[in-house]
UniProtKB/TrEMBL annotation:
Organism encoding this protein: Candidatus Sulfurimonas marisnigri
UniProt cross-references to Pfam families, sorted A to Z: LpoB
InterPro entries hit by this protein: LpoB (IPR014094)
Protein's UniProt keywords contain Signal: yes
UniProt keyword terms in alphabetical order: Signal
NCBIfam families reported in the protein's UniProt record: lp (TIGR02722)
Signal peptide segment: 1-24
Protein name, as recorded: Penicillin-binding protein activator LpoB
Source organism superkingdom: Bacteria
Length: 205
């Protein structure tokens, strides 16, 4: 009984010590984050890269359709060639949202490198057309899907450079290309470079 009480006291004191040393959790103002930079990529880097790419693409005129209509865009492969396990959708989604808001393009989710992003578009067609419980006049007919005009692809690269015994530099390259699917020609390309310098003890993954 005494041993149980003693261990309970020890665990309680240990818990108090660790809780007293813990960093306090606070909310971040993502629109005005003054926090220290990190050697790896964070949301600020993705926001900056995406915004630069959107502005570059819109300024190039590559998505200005002659008749004033909107191009149909499909997202191709975005390669992660960094040491980090990042989801490239962090970059792509922000670019897609910006382009959609511009009114210059619409994005198809019915096709993609690894199949449809939204499988429901095809699933409802195949399943509901043979289901008598559904009014067939309300089921999407054959030949109603719109094929994409443009394909957006890209790559994120990382290069680590040793500056001296205590300092390293990490460079991140955001590369994007917009290809006309009909001709296979790139209508637009751009690159955004983010460089960071810090301690060799810091990890960039």
């Amino acid at each position: 009984m005494r041993r149980t009480i003693r261990w309970t006291l020890i665990l309680g004191v240990t818990g108090l010590l660790f809780s007293g040393c813990a960093t306090k959790t606070t909310n971040i103002d993502i629109n005005n984050d003054k926090g220290d930079a990190v050697m790896g990529l964070d949301y600020r880097d993705f926001q900056g890269a995406a915004q630069d790419m959107i502005e570059s693409l819109l300024a190039s005129g590559a998505v200005n359709k002659p008749n004033g209509e909107r191009y149909v865009l499909v997202v191709s492969r975005i390669i992660n060639d960094t040491m980090q396990h990042i989801d490239t959708d962090q970059l792509v989604k922000k670019i897609r949202v910006g382009l959609l808001r511009s009114g210059k393009v619409v994005v198809t989710t019915a096709v993609g490198v690894n199949g449809a992003e939204d499988t429901m578009a095809m699933k409802t067609r195949k399943e509901l057309r043979v289901d008598d419980e559904f009014n067939q006049k309300t089921v999407a007919g054959k030949g109603s899907m719109i094929a994409p005009d443009l394909s957006l692809s890209g790559k994120i690269l990382q290069r680590n450079i040793r500056v001296d015994k205590s300092t390293q530099r990490v460079e991140y390259y955001f590369q994007m290309s917009l290809t006309d699917i009909k001709t296979g020609l790139a209508f637009w390309e751009d690159e955004r470079v983010i460089g960071k310098r810090g301690s060799n003890k810091s990890v960039a993954w």
